[in-house]
Specification:
With 93 residues, this protein is mainly α. The protein has one domain. The chain is built from 4 helices and no strands. The chain is elongated. The relative contact order is 0.05.
């Protein structure tokens, strides 16, 4: 079985009022300050990543999304112009 070592460190500076608040909260949870801060930071990190990487759709939105993928619009002059403008503005030469 592989073992992992905790060899990375994050330093944090805060005033005594904030430190006491965190210590109090950690005490209520029966955790060390380090364990409390790590757990809280990881939970917030997972929440933030989820908010940015996961898309939740209702039934109507799911159907519209599927239809857009299954039945793409026909290429017309307006779409061709938009593609050409994109290539001119965004794509590096």
């Amino acid at each position: 079985m592989a073992t992992t070592t905790n060899d990375e460190r994050i330093n944090l500076r805060l005033n005594s009022t904030l430190k006491q608040l965190i210590e109090r909260a950690a005490g209520f949870k029966g955790q060390s300050v380090s364990k409390f801060i790590l757990g809280s930071a990881l939970a917030k990190a997972e929440e933030t990543i989820y908010e940015h990487e996961v898309m939740s759709l209702g039934v109507a939105e799911s159907e519209a999304f599927y239809d857009a993928l299954a039945k793409p619009p026909e290429v017309n002059e307006k779409l061709t112009d938009a593609i050409m403008e994109y290539e001119h503005r965004v794509k590096p030469e």
